[in-house]
Automatic annotation (TrEMBL):
InterPro entries: DUF167 (IPR003746). Transmembrane segments: none annotated. Belongs to the UPF0235 family. It comes from Geopseudomonas aromaticivorans. PANTHER family: UPF0235 PROTEIN C15ORF40. It holds the Pfam family DUF167. This is UPF0235 protein KRX52_15140.
Amino acid sequence: MSWFRWDGADLVLACHLQPKASKDEFAGLHGDRLKIRLTAPPVEGKANAHLLAFLGKAFGVAKSQVSLESGELNRQKRVRIHAPQKLPAELAAELEAERPT
């Protein structure tokens, strides 16, 4: 399985989260998941909220358009981005190749 799939206009990402990193960034692949480093600590849902905001900004949508489908309490997460308006430069080539027309 790839680290992403398109579901109509929505993009579903399989992520591996690394909280308490030095900066927010996409960090390549971790197995079959996209590794995302975040500065937020993994307490009281702060890392999850920060992840949704980070992905919303990266994909040009409001954070309300990004939802956590699974993995609320662990590092392995599945996130849905509703109709992304842009693709981050570091991921664009791979995502665009599979994007439905």
